[in-house]
């Protein structure tokens, strides 16, 4: 550790287990993710089912003011990413959120953060792999369980082979999503200026304020969409998990993080302005993709099939990222004696096989969940995933504030990528995230996540007490325990 950890009373700082067979990443991983892949992972992380599907519900609740909600939340996300960037350039490590929480807030917070972030991605993966199976029925009458199984096995295989293959697949997944958004914007711009398609005669930017005003349901309606909006941005922090496997983190990570403002401006604000200018906001329905609905309103028949393919790609991309991050987070916990030691083992290609396999197996529960609650599954899981993501963001901000104080006192080296406006921007972002949690309590569908959070917290406290009772003083691991596996 580079600084003294602060634990709970009577608790000894937990020293991380040293991994054997280290590569230049310093953690046993292979630095195989290049600048091209890191950039697209960062771009694709901000585009998922939260935008392609969740925006339909948000539009029906907020109307055109949803554009402002995405802009405000996007600014907060940028503050969070710059705080993360400051930490990453101070010490780039895989499993960064848990590692920084462990260093700056204490072993208990590292334990909670690692397991909570892992749970968040498992929950998200459950939603995405089942959603992908539903999208397949658009073309073929394939049983959902069969598609879910096939997609899970396929993505597990991709993550097992090598991190380079994961990065390449995520690059092309992201490319499809980016191309689709840009294409939608250009088509809408063409309709507004040239008037073609069925929507051409009525398309106008005046739709943004003429039909009930910018805030048709008042400011309260807009605020109640913040949970959906923040869910859409989940995975933008995934670039931090890739730090230990980036070829040149000092160069690639700042470039990826600095693309956040224009990504949000184009893919969220720009896309929504275009869609809501071409199609009046009242024409969109909850639980229906606004992109599919917009193509239908335009009378472009091929659009539904194209958008269905894009949404399928978005779901598979999210599940692919989930498998990647969960395996790394479990290994980070294992190396620090906060998880089963078997998760520390790597294959010869630098992949945490057992952690990834365990997470992939749990993701198969998605078939049963969607069978039990088909109408509410997406909303319930979205709320649970949002809680997990917000916790990770809060930990990033708190760690950055603690790090900056130490750096200013000369106790730690100053990061080469300091967050502008900190600590004020970080404090503002913290207040915004707390507001989102409070607002979730007023949404009957989102409220279930607030009920589940204390239960998960109690389980973690109990698990941590068992962990301390079994190993109150972390010992260095036997080199054989973390040596790369032969498989």
UniProtKB/TrEMBL annotation:
Compositionally skewed regions (Low complexity) per UniProt: 7-20
Main location class: membrane
Name the UniProt record assigns to this protein: Amino acid permease
Domain of life (superkingdom): Bacteria
InterPro entries reported for this sequence: AA-permease/SLC12A_dom, Amino_acid_permease_CS
Transmembrane segments: 40-59, 65-84, 104-124, 144-166, 178-197, 217-239, 260-279, 299-319, 353-371, 377-401, 422-442, 448-466
Domain Amino acid permease/ SLC12A: 38-468
Compartments where found: Cell membrane
Protein's organism: Streptomyces evansiae
One Pfam family cited in the UniProt record for this chain: AA_permease
The keyword Membrane is assigned to this record: yes
UniProt topology in membrane: Multi-pass membrane protein
Family: Belongs to the amino acid-polyamine-organocation (APC) superfamily. Amino acid transporter (AAT) (TC 2.A.3.1) family.
Assigned keywords, A-Z: Amino-acid transport, Cell membrane, Membrane, Transmembrane, Transmembrane helix, Transport
Ranges for region Disordered: 1-22
């Amino acid at each position: 550790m580079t600084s003294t950890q602060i634990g709970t009373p009577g608790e000894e700082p937990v020293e991380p287990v040293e991994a054997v067979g280290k590569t230049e990443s310093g953690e046993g991983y292979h630095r195989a993710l290049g600048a091209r892949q890191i950039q697209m992972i960062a771009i694709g992380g901000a585009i998922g089912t939260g935008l392609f599907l969740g925006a339909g519900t948000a539009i029906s609740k907020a109307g055109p003011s949803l554009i402002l909600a995405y802009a405000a939340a996007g600014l907060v996300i940028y503050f969070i990413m710059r705080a993360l960037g400051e930490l990453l350039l101070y010490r780039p490590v895989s499993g960064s959120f848990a590692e920084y929480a462990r260093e700056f807030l204490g072993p208990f917070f590292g334990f909670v953060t690692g397991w909570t972030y892992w749970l968040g991605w498992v929950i998200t993966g459950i939603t995405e792999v089942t959603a992908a199976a539903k999208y397949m029925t658009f073309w073929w009458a394939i049983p959902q369980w069969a598609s879910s199984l096939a997609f899970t096995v396929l993505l597990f295989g991709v993550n097992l082979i090598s991190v380079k293959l994961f990065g390449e697949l995520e690059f092309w997944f992201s490319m499809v999503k980016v191309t689709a958004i840009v294409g939608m914007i250009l088509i809408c711009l063409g309709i507004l200026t040239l008037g073609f398609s069925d929507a051409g005669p009525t398309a106008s930017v005046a739709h943004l304020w003429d039909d009930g005003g910018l805030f048709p349901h008042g400011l309260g309606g807009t605020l109640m969409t913040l949970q959906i909006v923040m869910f859409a941005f989940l995975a933008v922090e995934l670039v931090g998990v890739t730090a230990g496997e980036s070829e040149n983190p000092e160069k690639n990570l700042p470039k990826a993080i600095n693309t956040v403002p224009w990504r949000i401006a184009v893919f969220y604000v720009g896309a929504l302005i275009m869609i809501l200018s071409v199609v009046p906001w009242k024409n969109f329905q909850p639980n229906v993709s606004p992109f599919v609905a917009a193509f239908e309103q335009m009378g472009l028949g091929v659009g539904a099939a194209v958008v269905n393919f894009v949404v399928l790609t978005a779901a598979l991309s999210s599940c692919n990222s989930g498998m990647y991050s969960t395996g790394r987070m479990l290994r980070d916990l294992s190396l620090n004696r906060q998880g089963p030691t078997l998760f520390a083992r790597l294959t010869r290609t630098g992949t945490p096989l057992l952690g990834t396999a365990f997470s992939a197996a749990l993701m198969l529960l998605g078939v049963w969940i969607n069978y039990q609650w088909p109408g509410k599954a997406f909303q319930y899981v979205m709320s649970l995933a949002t809680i997990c993501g917000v916790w990770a963001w809060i930990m990033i901000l708190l760690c950055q504030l603690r790090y900056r104080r130490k750096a200013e006192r000369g106790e730690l080296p100053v990061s080469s990528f300091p967050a502008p406006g900190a600590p004020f921007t970080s404090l503002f972002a913290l207040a915004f995230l707390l507001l989102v949690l409070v607002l979730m309590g007023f949404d009957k569908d989102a409220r279930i996540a607030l009920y589940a959070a204390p239960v998960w917290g109690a389980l973690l406290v109990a698990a941590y007490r068992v962990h301390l009772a079994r190993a109150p003083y972390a010992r260095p691991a036997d080199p054989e325990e973390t040596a790369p596996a032969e498989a």
